[in-house]
Design goal:
Blueprint (H helix, E strand, L loop, with lengths): L2 H13 L2 H8 L3 H15 L4 E4 L2 E4 L1 H28 L6 E5 L1 H4 L2 H12 L5 E5 L2 H9 L5 E5 L7 E16 L11 E2 L8 E4 L4 H12 L9 E3 L2 H9 L4 E5 H7 L3 E7 L3 E9 L6 H17 L1
Parallel strand pairs: 3-4, 3-5, 7-11, 8-9, 8-10
Antiparallel strand pairs: 1-2, 5-12, 6-10, 6-11, 6-12
Helix pairs in contact: 1-2, 1-3, 1-4, 2-3, 6-11
Length: 296
């Protein structure tokens, strides 16, 4: 079966008709119909049936479509990579980071960097860690700054520093508020505004609770964003456990306390392992390490 046959089949599945596929692929309808018939012949399968004048895909077509979706998604990634390689990003530093860093450490690092590289064009993009790493692999970014995560093939990891996890709750301004470390083992989980999913901070909290042999605790309120968790805590909806950079950036109206036992997450920079790092990128990494050292 030729790739062209898979392409016409995939287009018919996407658009729901041969005419739609022909338009999508810039073909005549007769050419598209012929290619689809050739695809069915090559496979020895019936992929579509006519039901009351409408094209209906078979179960076999549905199973095949799952695989062609993966195939053409990968082809799109290859095209994106080729397009970005043609842009020759030398002399252009493109930084991806998670929002916590984009609203805390990155602005100061960029300011310090531009004192030495004032004429270098820069881009700063934010998103979740996995999203930023995908962009890095497509050569849309030169470096990704985030909390540590499992290392993907073709990437290299540069440690930047350890960030403490902090307990944040409303600052009522009333005397008698606790100021010492928050005992993680005795915190009331019914008041916890948690971070869901595979987030590194959330995972560290869960691992620490297990080490303390405490019962599993489910948060009474959950979000996927550090800043939202801290903002909810500031509204008096409970307490949040967030990284210190987020806690400091939110600042006003929050009481910030370290945890007992301490919990930390590592900040890292990812880059494509096969790429030779530029002098400018190394300079930016050094600045970031100094930024994180001041937090620690």
């Amino acid at each position: 079966m030729r790739l062209r046959h898979l392409e016409i089949f995939h287009a018919v599945m996407r658009t729901g008709s041969v005419s739609g596929a022909a338009t999508l692929l810039n073909l005549s309808q007769s050419a598209a119909s012929k290619a689809l018939a050739q695809a069915e012949h090559a496979l020895g399968l019936t992929l579509f049936q006519r039901v009351q004048g409408r094209l209906v895909h078979t179960r076999e077509a549905e199973q095949l479509y799952g695989q062609t979706t993966l195939l053409f998604a990968q082809a799109d990634n290859v095209r994106r990579l080729a397009r970005n390689l043609k842009r020759n990003p030398e002399g252009h530093l493109r930084i991806g980071c998670i929002p916590s860093f984009g609203l805390s450490a990155i602005p100061g690092a960029v300011q310090a960097f531009r004192q030495e590289y004032a004429n270098m064009p820069m881009e700063v993009l934010t998103g979740n860690g996995d999203e930023m790493v995908d962009a890095l692999l497509a050569r849309e970014l030169d470096v990704v700054i985030c909390f540590d995560m499992p290392l993907r093939p073709a990437l290299a990891r540069l440690p930047l520093g350890e960030i403490r996890v902090m307990h944040v709750s409303p600052d009522t301004g009333q005397p008698g508020q606790e100021t010492g470390p928050a005992d993680l083992e005795t915190l009331d989980a019914s008041q916890w505004i948690g971070l869901g999913g595979s987030d590194p901070v959330a995972q560290q909290i869960r691992d620490t609770w297990e080490r303390l042999q405490s019962p599993d605790a489910a948060p009474m309120l959950e979000t996927r964003t550090y800043y939202v968790a801290a903002a909810l805590a500031r509204q008096g909806l409970g307490f949040a456990l967030v990284d210190e950079l987020t806690a400091r950036a939110m600042g006003h109206g929050l009481r910030m306390r370290p945890l007992d036992p301490p919990v930390t997450v590592e900040a890292v920079a990812f880059h494509v392992a096969s790429d030779v790092r530029s002098i400018a990128l190394d300079a930016f990494i050094d600045i970031l390490r100094r930024q994180f050292a001041r937090v620690g």
